[in-house]
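Data card: per-record layout.
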Amino acid sequence: MTHYPVFLNLSGLTVALIGDGPEAEGRVPALIAAEATIRRLSPTDFSSEQLDGASLVICATNDEPLNARVSDAARARNIFCNVLDRPPLCSWIAPAVVRRGPLQIAVSTGGRSPALAVRIKETIAEVIGPEYETFLDMLYAMRDRVRERASTQAERGTIFQSMARGPALEMIREGRVEDAEHALQDALIAVESSSGLRAVPERKAC
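The structure for this 206-residue chain is written out next.
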């Protein structure tokens, strides 16, 4: 079986977290960052009804009968459930993640070797440094200008590919942030000139 990779918008949704050890605590920061509502449940007095209304379940205990009960209860309610380090009990698995601001790169081995996933994550982290967060913010800031100049998805894609593959990222690595901003602007002008896109004049202040 191959898992389907997906990023979830958990803002305002309830995540049931069962466990009171470091494994459970380690899941809390990412859930808070995702703006999820965390429902902490004690392993000692768990009941299946406590999962009612949850959108996601995370179970982090070493109690094997309890792990199975949680998995079964979640499955009966059609709630995706992750039981840490127990792939057969999981309907979803958590990847190792490299985070650079809004940029997230997830690595999964399908539950076969979390240790290898961590090693791959560390390798990626050495290549994808903090400059990518700055670069992503710059590209995002250019979105409205690109949309003003390109009316189709294909045209916008051409412009953004030119920006993404240009020299701006290397300039950021070298600390030349202002030069990188100019390079993105130059890329936009170059694509306009070569493709015949209509340049839209800057709006004048009222």
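Known properties of this structure: Residues 1-94 form a domain with the Rossmann fold fold (CATH 3.40.50.720). Residues 85 and 113 are 10 Å apart (CA to CA).

See the next section for split statistics.
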